[in-house]
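Structural prep section.
Before we set up the soaks we want a predicted structure of the protein with thiamine diphosphate in place, mainly to decide which crystallisation condition to try first. Input record follows.
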Amino acid sequence: MTRSGADVLIEALAAEGVTTVFGLPGTTIMDVLDALARQSVITFVSVRHEQVAGFAADGFARAHGDVGVCLVSRGPGAANLATALQNAYDESIPVLALVGQVPAPIAQRRAFEEMDVVSAFRPFTKWVVEVGETGRIPELAQRAIRIAVTGRPGPVVVSLPLDVLQGPTDVRVQRRARILPPVPHPDLVKEAAELLLSAERPVLILGGGAAASGCDSYLALAAGTGAAVATTWLRKGAFPNDHPQFIGSLGYGAFGSTEEAVHDADVVVAIGCRFSEFTSKRWTLLGDRTALIHVDIDPEELGRLYQPAVAIWADGEAAARAVTREILSAGQRQVGPATERACRRYADESRLVPEAPSAPGAVASADLVAALRGLMERDDVVLVQDVHSFGPWISRYVKVTRPGSYFGAAGGAMAWGFPAAIGVSCAWPGKRVVAISGDGSFWMVAQDLETCVREGIPVVNIVVNNYAFGNTRDRQRFAHDGRYLGVFLTNPDLGLFARLVGGHGERVTVGSDLPGAIARALDSGLPAVVDVVQDKMEGLPPGLTPITSR
Ligand SMILES: Cc1ncc(C[n+]2csc(CCOP(=O)(O)OP(=O)(O)O)c2C)c(N)n1
Ligand SMILES: [Mg+2]
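Run finished without errors. Recording the tokens verbatim:
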């Protein structure tokens, strides 16, 4: 049967199991929107800025565990996606960006809004392709998805010229074959188990490649080895933080106890961890005498920064299961005295929240921590954490006890949080998704509260409102003798803003009012903003200075 290119594109996406596409219309993708309008398998969520479509696709992918999809038009629409794709590339998130393009007959003439999509996105995507023929749309779209989700995941871009989308085709759409990740080699599993059986101070590090869905395997590995368990920076959703062997998250703001336990470990098992700059303390964290068992889905990673004693190219969960089986066949290891000490130190450090009193009419960070601790006790809440100075308070003092109920932005892109929460909420409509952002970050994407109201996406935003780009303010405070420029802001009442666009909104200026305000926001069932007013100098936990850029 003859259909248009746009029709077979949607057929191909549906065949891949895509259910949601985030996007913003434009001339070159109107046929795709028309094809979407004539079917009911895929929902189109129209947003107010392409960056939001990209970040929402990213959040959807993290929650759903498969590709997240966004759709934008040529030139400016495509360019607006850049930050989201760059961040997804940095964080290894499988995002498919479908981008309109000028029709081929007028290409290369600097036609209206023409942009070289392939060159523009190549440096920060896994793959970019411009489709040259209508009949090849399903093949290349499906190949893009396969590339996005297999191996180290990452963003991909498919550029779709208007004439290619409008052309006729009778191509048959096939389903992508099921591709399973490599399984761990038994010899290497044995070597890993032997190392762990003789270890005195083993530590397990779980990174972005250690999916929360595999947590049972990591729990079993921790039980079998008696290892202390840490996560990488902003990945504390991978393991229950109240587990007696948990020693916290590495990276910016990590406790000394967490870093020392890793530094002093005789054996480290790193699963799905690329030893990023922050997680590895600029590659100083692992000691010379530490034997590394490195498990990764991406063979490029094994030995890139640290030479492993055992390198296992495999899915993390499968490797954890195999190593655990091998260890248990030789007898289980108990938690050793050094590990016990490290766990106790972490438990002590993470329990006590530093009390830093705040000015009248402003909420102290310790009060916000207390409110979040209460919030995370609910069994339906997912917390999505944007880039802001309050982040280390969460890393340190708010425990994520249900794996998968927390997502954080390790790529550093401000304004990821709220849009990613939109994506998480669309993937998991039964969950209550709470985004926590700084005022600077939230206001970069605040317009999409209207999207949430229109589409019925009840994301609750907690905005930590210090009337400042606090992180950069602190750099000026510490490194530029307090010569402040361009860092203090004049925000409106963000609760009022939320009500103005049809959501629920509250402004909180007293710490004790916070739990009630958050509960009311959740109970409203509406998209919401809880505007948490802080002192304009409020920010990092006491004693912590901004991430160095030197
Ligand atoms: C897109 C983007 N632009 C600039 C930066 C640099 N930057 C990092 S944090 C920050 C300030 C964040 O302000 P806010 O969201 O209010 O959080 P706060 O630090 O005040 O808690 C800036 C400008 C960035 N990370 N991302
Ligand atoms: Mg701020």
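Observations: Residues 296 and 313 are 5 Å apart (CA to CA).
Flagged for discussion at group meeting.
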